[in-house]
Batch of 4 targets.
Target 1
Amino acid sequence: MSLVPVHRALLSVSDKTGVVDLARALAARGVELVSTGGTATALRDAGLAVRDVAELTGYPEMMDGRVKTLHPAVHGGLLAVRDDPAHVAAMAAHGIGAIDLVVVNLYPFEATVARGAARGEVIENIDIGGPSMVRSAAKNHAHVAIVTDPADYSALLAELDAHDGATTLDLRRRLAAAAFAATATYDAMIAGWFAFADQGELFPRTLPLILQRQDELRYGENPHQAAAFYTGRGPSARGIGQAEQVGGKALSYNNLNDADAALELLAEFRDAGPTAVIVKHANPCGVATAATLEAAYRAAFQCDPVSAFGGIVALNRPLDGATAAAIAEIFTEVVVAPDADAEARAVFARKKNLRLLLTGALPDPARGGLSVKSIAGGWLVQSRDGGALSDDGLRVVTRRQPTARELADCRFAWTVAKHVKSNAIVYARDGATAGVGAGQMNRLESARIAAWKARDAADKAGWAEPRTIGSAVASDAFFPFADGLMAAVEAGATAVIQPGGSIRDAEVIAAADEAGLAMLFTGMRHFRH
């Protein structure tokens, strides 16, 4: 067990949560308390006897506290190997006392940046002495215990109780691992701030990523794959990772992936009327905006009722009882909404496997940030696709101008197509998707599949015609040939929105004119692989 009795502890914390109680418990065990600055003041105010670090080093704190613990009397007491005769002799020769326990957390750099502090204040909140002590103690964990998180105070005290005031090697190793993770996170935050905020780099030479494990998942995409869920750090982290789960079993890897896809699409409609999004296998299978949330959900569901079974539903308004009852008519895995009223919660409480995720405010679809994807031997990093339509970017390229309704449906279809796996084709009419074709190897097949789904949905609903009749159709990239366009014409589309840019644009435009279509070019594509 390699027990190490704790005779002297050094406490220097920015976050003083629980530190007085910890110090009082240590003092009751006869541990000598050594401290610095504000921590020492807090302990003395609590009536505890504290020895200043300056007393150990023979030097006062100086340079506005920048220099106080960077001294051999501190780091020698932390780094000395207690069973090495040479180290013991050096300690005796220089009057260095052993430090058995270090309790340190670092200057609040992250919080300082988050509240928009000026550059000078941000720099002053880069801790130097704290990380140095943490690393020294963690390196020498064979002899020293290092605690960097107030959440570990209780475990430390329980260990001291169990072992007559000593720590075990198992605990010290665990605390050392946490300590190095803490300093790595701290350094990554600083490196990230310098790269992105201070230097304005988009792709720094070294990309610091800070991820915190939130859950270990039952398995990954498939049962033979292990998986975990990590969340980002910082004020910009808002999404599925920060949502409150109400009811149901634990979320799976696929649940989280699909819920994220649903929320990202829904965010495009955060300022629109009541909107519902239904996602299956990370692709939208129905999207609609209507006068009420229930009407929006039912319209979205009618686009592809087969795929909606076992899907993910996302809503841009607080969930109400009527909408919850409509959703509960079929098996649904997860519902994502800003909030839910008592009636809606009661409806879902009767569905033991349905998970409700409450996000609060929806994320900004135009926010910055990076998208990271692993490949064999490396990582692909790109800026988020925050591209959106602008009036200046739209260009009518056919003889016929779109009607107001067609233009609105073009915009709607284009917004949805941005979130459909490429090759993507989306038909929309009256603010609802009529058919979605996703992930095909050519655009013609996507157009045909979307039209087939629309006809199938019409047959199931008993409609006289599919909703693709009189619809607008969006393509995430240009039509390389007129055949994909003509498939949309056969489905009944009367307006088209696409990026343009093909060497055969003239041929495609001529085909659209001959068919009497209105066609708009966006000059922007939305591949999503």
Target 2
Amino acid sequence: MFNIEEELKKLPDSPGVYIMKDKNEEIIYVGKAISLRKRVRQYFQSSKNHPPKVNAMVRHIREFEYIMVDNEVEALVLESNLIKKNRPKYNILLRDDKQYPYIKVTLNEKYPRVIKTRQILKDKAKYFGPYPSATAVNDALDIIKSIYPIRTCKLNLSKNMSNFRPCLNYYIGKCQAPCLGNVDEDEYMKMIDEILLFLNNKDDKIVQIIEEKMRDAAKNLDYEGAARYRDQLNSLNVLKEKQKIVTASNHIDQDIIAMARGVEEVCVQIFFVRDGKIVGREHFILEDTYNEDRKDILSSFIKQFYIGSAYVPKEIIIEEEIDDLEAVSKWLEGKRGTKVNMITPKRGEKVELIEMVRKNALDMLNQYGDRYLKKHRENMKALEEIQYLLDLDEIPNRIEAFDISNISGVESVGSMVVFEKGQAKKSDYRRFKIRSVKTPNDYASLEEVLKRRFTRGLEEKELLKNNELEKNGFSSFPDLIMMDGGKGQVNIALKVLDELGIDIAICGLVKDDFHKTRGIIYNNTEYHMDEDSRGFRLIYKIQDEAHRFAISYHRSLRSKSLFKSELDDIKGIGKKRKVSLMKHFQSIEKIKNASIDELAEVDGMNKKVAEEVYNQFRIKEDNNE
């Protein structure tokens, strides 16, 4: 058993990172220190001088670890990586309230793709942006793909390409199908080079093509087509737009960072200046900043933002000098490869830029802060009601709900939805296609889903310990599990968790004769809640979301199965003919209603196969009558 007093005596007087854990071995805080011995001991000394947040954290610490490094810069990098990977409960955390899109050219792949992304990785791809309009990015990508038949699939074309089969885009002329191995790579790269020139604002070929199409449409009195091309030009111009605000320091790449503080939240605004022009901005809401110093908030933001950024500009302008400026500067210089100037201006144009960014942060906070804060408070009150009702030790910040969907046992699926602090966390949702249960059996299906979910979670926790994995939805365990059902479903969950040695509170959502939620069953006791209470509304929302998620997955599997059974089982219909039929008729219903002659007219079809298709659907109709 971990003895905190004994372990404190063993702490070294050297720089490093310390990791605080709770009773479930979850990482709840990560910090760096010049002296691990002095810094970690401070947490367990008199609590009089600690802010409330630190006192709350210390009450939950059951053990700690530390990693020694050679200097403060190494400690800073390790701390930032661990915070990003584990997102500890008591660290200042960045919540992406609005992530502007980038265009990514996957030069790290054979036969590159051109895609939209909101995440920049250090993967040798080429990124352009950020762009202020996601619609403009989507339109531009559609235009690029209409002009250049480049691939959109995620296939690894470094492998043996003879094993791949082309997708629908090949048959409709939107892709040359490099997956078949018959596309000259040099010719393909010429298309990518032209796209790169456009994205770098060094070539207007794409714009000229669209302008010509617009003029041709207008000449042919196709005014709707001309208007469509006009809208496409507008989208392209958003990507190429010359900025209204130009800094006096021409041709310098800068990031300008300032913040506005509300009652319980902080908005940090960052403006991107590239080649002397403001090309975009992002804003972030920071959580858990109560009683935190402005310098500490800015320092945390800078480390978390740039740890995930593929690009560091030559100059970073910040509104207030941070305490660990020297260490952060050295770290950023290591990422950039050249000197990075971190400036806190006192006068002149740069002070005006900081003021502009701060005003934007304040405006963003005024627009969204109150709404976010009100929603956050409502959610926390709802969680407190659930905690009080079930007499839980802590507020259930993370809740996972499970549901099963099937129709007569066909294509049974399970869903797992996740709510954190009362908000849906869709990135952690998971779907399960039931493998072991062949007949309608919700209990057995739930048992399979829970075993797969938590077995995977335990495996990934081990990988996390060895630093072999990024934290994700499986490695994060909930504070409360909600089952869609009563005692039977709850007992299944208790059995699975007991077999795996996991201790998590489990409740069931009980329904009345009209399939409406009437209460919660917990520890063999049924609890009723006022339907107008915050807690009940949150429970109902979670249950409804779990059901919706399961049903949507089930429907998608059924539609795929339906498409397969109605066309693929017809004699003489292979993949090419199926694609041709769908391309020609646009829907299964139109194929069903087509005559033999209409079916025979489709590219690749003949009268004999057309008769097979026609007769197949007529036989089905006769059998259904």
Target 3
Amino acid sequence: MSGGWREDILFKLKRRTNEQVSPFQNLILIQTKLIERNSILEEENTSLSTLAENLKLENRQLEASIHSRAAVSQAADSVTVNELHQKLFRLQEELTEMHRRKGENAQQVIDLSAALKLSDKEISTKNLAIESLEAEMMILKQDLTNFQSSLQELESTNQLLKDEYQALQLALTTAETSLSSVKRENDTLVVQLMALKAKDADRMNLENDLFMLKKQQLMQLELAEAASEFRHIPETANQGITTFRTVTGVTVPTKAAFKFEAHEGEVMCVQWDFGGRYFATAGTDRKIKVWEIERLQQAECKAILTGSNAAVMGVDFDLNGTMVLGASNDYATRVWTIDDCRLRHTLTGHSNKVLSAKFFGDATRVVSGSHDRTLKIWDLRSKACISTKFAGSSCNDVVTTEMSVISGHFDKKVRFWDIRSSSEPLHEVIVGGKVTSLDLTKDKNYLGICSRDDKLSIVDLRTNGVVGTYSGEEFHVGCDWSRISFSPDGQYISAGTGEGNLYVWNVCTGVVEKVLRGHSSGIYAVSWHPTGLNILSVDKSKTCYVWSDM
């Protein structure tokens, strides 16, 4: 191969020499002939000039001789004078012809000089082209050398890759063999693990049953002691609240069981489903996540619901726990099914952020409250808005009963709407600050209101009057969408502060039952488990806390 490319380059150089020299050979021959012809014409011109000078000299001599002869003898023969005149005339004609030929020769010399200059210019152009081609040839030679070295490197690299491929092929074969054995071992371990988990689940269920039985027995003893001692609850500003339906197992949490990072941005809301199996969180990352708590040790994400184009401000479950409702800042309300994580309905019609949305009891209708100062009632069967309520103020939260809607607004008013009547509210309740949140007790008899004057109020829906007001020395509502939550039995109400503290009030006595500290930023929402065993709270720094006393 090394001898072949040298012969190829030599052959190309010879061919280039032949191609570049042969066009100039004719020009060189023509130029040589022109130079020789020019020399001949110059010699002829010189000889003619000499002959003309000789003729002039001879003419002068003849004229002198004529004049001398005329002076000596004026009676000369007329025949001789005529001959001399004729000879003089012939010489003048010959002199004129010589001058004409001299001019023609001079013009030929000029033409040949011009042609010579053009030939010189063409030769210079060709020489420049030859020089550029030689420089290009040198560059091509250098490129050829580089390509040859690159080719050698590629060949060596290719050989190395082939060796590595063979080694990897052997390693892959070995790994596949190992994988097969590991899979068989893993299948065996999975079967063993499932059996152990089943045993562990049975054991945990037995322990839970024993714990609940013991707790019920303890509560019955306490109730018996209370009945025997005829304890009396002191009268306070909250004496309008009389009795609540007892829910076994409701306790005020005393510590954080665990915490976890729920979203990629701020967590705006949290809500348990009605069965207490799942809870949902939503935030500024435009996602709704459905979680399940395992043994009060960790939360496992069961579903991620996407489709919102802005932050999700509120979530709600239907009674069966199969659908999730989300209120979004992109002016829309959406409904997902949990099992397949599919977006089922997108309800659009508001002209501003939707801050809250709730299902009605049959889960075929939805109410949404927006910053555009309206409430809209939607029929999920027809996917259309069936009623619009003009509140006159931005709506921050809504709750529903079977045939009514209660909305809290920026203008410090809580409005009560009958969905079967006109668009005017039935009545209103005014509090001391912008309403941030509403919550109903499980029996739908009492309404909790959180407002920006750092107070919580409770309204008896049977009398439509405020029966209790709650506050604390360090209790400060941190935002316009701070969500509160009743305990399942209605005996406690909880709310978060802008400093990251979770307050729990005793509804009957009006005193702060517990302040739970742990959040590093403001708490946006809380939700009490339907069995009363724990409380969820979410904050601005992406964190969700699970509070419990177990």
Target 4
Amino acid sequence: MLKSVLIANRGEIACRVIKTARRLGIRTAAVYSDADADALHVRLADEAVHIGAAPARESYLLADKIIAAAKQTGAEAIHPGYGFLSENAGFAQAVHDAGLIWVGPHPAAITAMGLKDAAKKLMQDAGVPTTPGYLGDDQRPEQLKSEADAIGYPVLIKAVAGGGGKGMRKVESAADFADSLLSCQREAASSFGNDQVLLEKWVTNPRHIEVQVFGDKHGNVVHLFERDCSLQRRHQKVIEEAPAPGMDAETRAAVCQAAVSAAKAVDYVGAGTIEFIADGSEGLKADRIWFMEMNTRLQVEHPVTEEITGQDLVEWQLRVASGEPLPKRQDELSINGWAMETRLYAEDPAKGFLPSIGRLDLFELGSEGVRIDTGVTQGAEISPFYDPMIAKVIAHGPTREAAREKLVKALDESAVWPLKTNAGFLVKALTHPNFAAARLDTGLIAREGDALLPPARPSDEALADAAASLTQGGLLAGFRLNAPTHATGTFLLDGEAVTVTYDPRNGGEEPAEDVLIAEGGQVWRLAPWRAVGAGGADASDGAMLSPMPGRIIAVTVAAGEAVTKGQKLLTLEAMKMEHSLVAPFDGTITELNASEGGQVNEGALLVKIEKAG
């Protein structure tokens, strides 16, 4: 068994690896950027090394600094986690060349499966069914457009080096192809340093089914059954579960065997995931499930597999990297119950799921009967430099419904402040009739749209209770002769004036400056009413403010230019997301404070438009 390991990652996955390594008696070393100096993974590790500035390209993506940190700490091995350099064959090779152990597959396997087009060709040769599409080297826009026309719309553009929903665009019609291709290529170049794409036929009623595979250095490969990751928003997984609803034994055997064949085709070692797209219009059937890609690393959603199999996949990784055979044979693995996982993000569903950045003054997650994997604690700073996921909440139960109910309860009892989270959105998704009945496909969230957004304000009952606690002398009012049983007052709910009817006798002895209302996974701040100045500006005045701190990656207008309602003005990038600002009405650009490559703060005035007429 390894004696020491360096984790070349941060946040939740770094903490997850440290937890298992500690249980196995393995010494751990962490790396951190300027932004993560006080991070939880730094505090948990036995030793930590600073490797650079906050941006990932100046720290967590610097292979030479990470390898130097491993040597400095005396680590025998490097565990890459997921994201960052985890699927970088060059980094894996550099680790080997430095005389260190790579906790992952051989660099050749990463190379073979790392590019989606090459992987699909390899799978076709191995007899694994693949989605119809275009895998050619000719990347001229006119050629890609011609191929898309031949495939038929809707068509999916995918970055060959993509992952995590990045570099993917669904194109509904030929007229939309050129703009979607340009946007996809730009995002792919920025995220992966490779703007090459492939095309796939968009599958009707698609479901995302993936199989966890594991190989060792002795030629053994097993699967640990399937997961269903169909509930997605913009190709990013939202809720994952295992096993897949509606998967019969015959189809499971076929899909899992195809996954094992895929892994054997590249002599796979370590944890990997074979992802399939299924046409679920007539249920899950083996002849309607096609290979999409392979992730040559541990997946974000690996806990659901751990929960139904009783296995620690990080332990498996560390044992395999040590040269041990797989801990279990295929016939020793079985499915026990059901597991579900939700990804809790610091983002605001009411504002288009924009990242929410700042200090976690309150961070309390419902924990009864569920597993919480997180890399932050109360008081932590959520920066704009990394993915906004702050926790994973995982529930396990004897049935799908039992797991779902546990998860809903945990999210409903969660409270995070002042940052916004998607907890309320997750509750709405989990309780949606189609999800509850396992009527799943990857378009469910997009179709439901605003119906899945959490309420903009608390219930009247919660508001009344909060208002009563803010009133002065609330208890004394109950002793006054003919005291009113109801009062109506104006308060500020997250800065907006609201009128609340409440019972003043239910208040506290002292007036409060404000009170937090936690309901349905959401938190609001209620404060006594006070006059608020009318200063500032918003889009209705033609003032376009930056909704978050970030970097300007495209400016498509100039000062003095006439614009039309809905026209794209500029594109902002933060926390690996792109956000475009569009004109709220017809008018003329009178002020432009944005340049490509520039950094901006939240609330900065970027564009001013004078309304036409």
